[in-house]
């Protein structure tokens, strides 16, 4: 039976790289995002690459009322489902400091919106089986002065995925948390960041991690050790850092 993937934030760079791989192996795709024209183009490209049944569904992670068409489409799909969450936004911390109104949408994009969607689809996953791929960030491993609001959102999402993993494991559903370091995407354009990787590399790591049923992966893998060191720095020293 063909696999079906629900991709939230399907037009993001990492999601596009994953969709290309999934299409080539004939997966069914529910491509979900805000830009209808971009979604339609991505769906057409996926079909040309060999994807199974493919649909483009407009939704806004900040608007729970827009989730219903995706949930209805998922109900109509046969067999197990994999939900992959790529939604998120990362305003510059200085912008947030100047305008705290940016906090709510930042949390909605990376935390409260994805959590609401996953909670609504969890019963169907428990019934059908499948997987969840939640894309967080190494920024969630420790609050840093340069991006602590974004980091807080990703930390909260990682904690939620841990609990969801515990809940859905009883039904045989695998939940994997993905923690990329800096990736060459629209979020990082113009930034000079260390150990940057590509969307294609992250997509490959996601598929390998799922195959091996990993609970948490870092991509690139070196970030597991980098963040281990960063988490180990004592707080009196860490609060004097500026990275």
TrEMBL record:
Domain of life of the native organism: Bacteria
GO cellular component: membrane
Stored InterPro entries: NAD(P)-bd_dom_sf, SDR_fam
Pfam families, A to Z: adh_short (PF00106)
Keyword terms, alphabetized: Oxidoreductase
One function term, GO molecular function aspect: oxidoreductase activity
Similarity comment: family membership: Belongs to the short-chain dehydrogenases/reductases (SDR) family.
Protein name (database record): Putative oxidoreductase
The species this protein was found in: Oceanicola granulosus (strain ATCC BAA-861 / DSM 15982 / KCTC 12143 / HTCC2516)
